Each structure stands twice: as C-alpha cells, then as structure tokens.
C-alpha cells in the first residue's frame, strides 16, 4: 500500500473505505483526514499494518520508553533521533514505535520525559488524557495505519483536569467538556483513603485504558492479534519518573 508523507495514499484509503463508507476530506497539502471513526475495517487496518517494514513489538516499545524515562530521571538524556539526517528521513514517512494519550499539561512533554526524538512517538495530548471521538480516531490511525504496537495512556501527579473533576464545580466555556469525560472514573475511588486527586489520577488512567479497549473495534482486533498493547502509567511531576499502573 502506498503512502504519502507517512499517510495512506488517497486512492488506497478510498479502497479501504469502500462503497458506502464514510466520507473523507482531502487537505490542500494532499493529506487525508477521516471524518468517521470506523471508516476502515479492522481487517483492512490489519492489512495496512503489515506494510510497516520494521514493526516494533509492544514489549520492545515499552522497554524503549522505560529506558528513555530512566535516562531522563537520571539526567543522562541522549536526545536521540534529533539530527538533520533523522529529520530528512522521517520527512519521507513516519513509523512511530509508540502512540500516547497524555495530558496537555506543559510539564509532561512526551519526547523529553521519554528521551525520544523525531518520528518516534505519535502523541495525542488532551487535558486529562481523555478518550474522545477525536483522540480515539487519532490513536486508531497511529496503530492501525502507522503501525505503532503500543499505546501508553499517561496521567500525572497533581493533574488540574482531574482535580477539577474531583472538585465538581461548574466551569466556564467548554472547559467542562473534558472534566465530564473524567467523572465516570471517580466512582471507582469514592471513599478510598488517601489523597482524592492522586487516587483519581490513577483511576482515570485505568478508566481511559478500559474505554480504549472497549469502544474501538479496530483496537480490540489489533490486541486480539497480538499487534497492540495498551498500558497505563502515572507520571511523577517531582521526580520525572513514570510508574506503570495498568
Ligand atoms: Zn493534567
């Protein structure tokens, strides 16, 4: 299957979408965007996955992230894959080895805290690291099309979005939208001893991981075929360290 700048060629995508499939929009740059969540069948997605020339297994991907975070914590970052040569290589196409659903918090930049570089991570960042139709679609794209075999859902210590959900006060504008997406996670830790926000941070990660597994046919199939793992972790703001929680 051909690719344009790391994306599936438009003709191939049309084939995947098939007759009666959902519409798609071509951008001025020639890229393509899906307008429907399940436009590609899991079978077609799996076939596309095969085109990744050097897939990185879920275990190897997690190992790379854990080691990168260790380097970051110990202040011996290698800043890999940030040369001009790497820039020029990934300009031709991307095969990120991991995808992430992380908080938009300015203190949790994925490439820095995992010591990675250009083309390594496909990162979706939203306040509260919540699963929404758009974040889910991005993660399906990263895995089924670009071939990442690991999704990391990363919450973090003292997350303002989670704290707002715990507090439960009304919020102006659309700030409340992502807070609402966190609230179902709170039921699991209601009445639990300890810091309510910290309990909720972990519960939210676990809840969002479950949502990914349960709401996406594409992700579920990749998991079943052994081509995807979803891992939840918590980031410690003080130490810069990640802990796997699910
Ligand atoms: Zn946050």
Automatic annotation (TrEMBL):
Keyword vocabulary terms for this entry: Membrane, Transmembrane, Transmembrane helix
Record SMART domains: Pro_CA
Q: Tell me the protein's name.
A: Carbonic anhydrase
Q: Which organism is it from?
A: Funiculus sociatus GB2-A5
Ranges that cross the membrane: 12-34
Regarding protein family, the annotation reads:
Belongs to the beta-class carbonic anhydrase family.
Recorded superkingdom = Bacteria
One protein family per Pfam: Pro_CA
Which PANTHER family does UniProt cross-reference here? CARBONIC ANHYDRASE, CARBONIC ANHYDRASE 2
